[in-house]
Write a structure and sequence with these properties.
single chain, 6 helices, alpha/beta, Rossmann fold, globular, 229 residues
Length: 229
Amino acid sequence: MNGKVALITGANGGLGSQLTRAFLDAGRTVAGTSRNIKQTDFAHPAFTAIVSDITTARGTAELIEQVMARFGKLDVLVHTVGGFAGGQSVIDTNDATIEQMLDVNFYSLFYVLRPALPRLRASGDGRVIAIGSRAAVDPGAGVAAYSASKAAMVALVRTVALENRDAGLRANVILPGTIDTPANRKAMPKADFSKWVQPASIASMIVWLAGDGGNDLNGAVIPIYGRDA
């Protein structure tokens, strides 16, 4: 993995932090981005913090420009940004909720892929790995906006896999169940945390996908449901 440059969105989030450390430990150069990321978030010489808003086309274009100006290339894109809203039936879901879910779960990925893909294709061995959700293929009542936005995300990644395999690029999406993060524990304090997916498990899978082990996977939809499967 030495010499490879990875861009991780949401790099200082609950999952993103674990993932960023895993990539740094594996010898990757990491550009980590979020709206509030700081260089001091990761005390490692191979880490570079880039503040950006990836929910806009302009924000992602500027982000990729900064990555290229700093490193001259991009080999791996890992997209962890996402959000959740639920509790309402389709009838009661308002416009703001569906727009919010599409913005954070679908458009953020679309906007970052568009400027990143030419750079990833130029790598000759580019990787796209996105964090979806079990709800994309196993939706439940009251979470229509969330489930639909994650399903759209899966379709986007699989399309990218088909359109770019000629350049040696592989694109895959991971569908976790509930992830054991501080934010989820706070939101669901009475849940059985032992059944949740550990961030380290997801990080290990992504590092593997980004390396030689993932050479033969493209367009895969990978479930990681934890002990609650």
